[in-house]
Specification:
The structure is a single chain. The N and C termini lie far apart (about 50 Å). α2 (about 80-95) crosses α3 and α8 (about 250-265) runs antiparallel to α9 (about 270-280). This protein has a domain at about 5-60. It has helices at about 55-60, 80-95, 115-120, 135-145, 180-190, 205-210, 230-240, 250-265, 270-280, 285-290, 290-300, and strands at about 5, 20-25, 35-40, 45-50, 50-55, 105-110, 125-130, 150, 165-170, 190-200, 225, 240-245, 305-310. It contains 11 helices and 13 strands. About 35% of the residues lie in helices and about 25% in strands. The protein is α/β, with parallel strands linked by helices. Strands 8-7-6-9-10-13-12 form a 7-stranded mixed sheet, with helices on both faces. Strands 2-3-4-11 form a 4-stranded antiparallel sheet, with no helix packed on it.
Length: about 325
């Protein structure tokens, strides 16, 4: 890997450079080199990496095996796996269609188009996507036959007030300038249009239990993280009204990843115990047994990922 290029950044919301260090850590998910700093803005409370990698360096931390770059559900050989993945996408479509049943939809950071694939089944939506990864964008465009614009959202030339719904599924935290991108999303939405996005919840139970080993930090890819009170303030100032906050993404896999990161820090003499613990967690009986507790955690909005539905306030 070539020498990394870094950027020192002020808070994207309030512009302050006054911050406190939360922790420093490596790339635990992909195991790529580097140490990265997560800080909290002392003025507004927004969390960010400072410094963070410039895009030319950061894009190498999104290799083809990065988890969002997966084949479409229809290509899964296992019927059980297809059902499991479709259930997750169904929950995403359902939360949108509770508030809007049809229209023009833009999915920002669409990856290989897994969400667009599920939305396409209804036939009620005019779909488009944006994806910076060349391979993923090309795959989605070819397989789904819908417009997929290759590049970053901030670089796209799009028509104001032309979309009824804009979605960002686990994308907002990856953006270098999320505040200006939220403003742009507001500009692109029609009157009363919906912005629907999922983000890591720093108020989640797992974040408190696992600390720096929580999967939601995902350094260095997650550039900003949003405590819910700060997010409410930001959206209101930009011109959105939050109409729903839900936990719909399921916590089983995020807990598994956090467990792996935590046990990976244990001394070598405890590695055998760690492997047994992880194997036990991955067993069918544990997954079934955790169904009710994780469902209850979702109802309390304490899971690792929250989904926010916000409506554009008419001018």
């Amino acid at each position: 890997m070539t020498e990394l290029e870094w950027k020192q950044v002020a808070c994207d919301w309030c512009g302050s450079n006054d911050n406190e260090l939360i922790f420093e850590g490596p790339d635990r998910l992909m195991g790529l080199p580097g140490q990265f700093r997560l800080v909290r803005c002392r003025k507004c409370g927004l969390l960010r990496q400072d410094p963070h990698l410039a895009w030319e360096s950061l894009k190498s931390y999104y290799p083809p095996e990065y988890s969002p770059h997966v084949p479409l559900v229809r290509e899964e050989r296992s019927a059980l796996r297809r059902l499991d993945r479709r259930y997750g996408m169904w929950k995403q479509t359902r939360i949108i269609e509770q508030f809007r049943r049809h229209g023009r939809l833009l999915d920002i950071g669409c990856g290989t188009g897994v969400f667009l694939e599920e939305m396409q089944r209804s036939g009620r939506w005019e779909l488009e996507g944006i994806e910076p990864a060349e391979d993923a964008a090309g795959y989605a465009r070819k397989e789904l036959g819908v417009p997929i614009y290759e590049g970053r959202f901030s670089d796209m030339d799009l028509t104001p007030a032309s979309y009824d719904v804009i979605t960002m599924w686990n994308v907002l935290e990856h953006l270098e300038n999320p505040i200006s991108d939220l403003r742009r999303a507001n500009d692109l939405l029609s009157a009363g249009g919906l912005l629907v996005f999922a983000i890591p919840s720093v108020e989640s139970l797992a974040a408190h239990i696992f600390g720096q080993y929580w999967v939601g930090w995902d350094l260095p890819r997650h550039l900003y993280l949003f405590p819910l009170p700060v997010l409410r303030t930001i959206l209101a100032k930009i011109g959105f009204r939050i109409v729903a906050v839900r936990c719909i993404s399921g916590s089983y896999s995020t807990l598994r990843d956090s467990l792996e990161f935590w046990t990976g820090s244990w001394k070598p003499s405890y590695r055998k115990v760690a492997r047994r613990m992880l194997n036990f967690y991955r067993s069918f009986f544990v997954r079934i047994g955790l169904g009710a507790p994780l469902w209850f955690l979702d109802r309390l909005k304490k899971s690792s990922v929250i989904t926010v539905v916000a409506r554009k306030i008419p001018a």
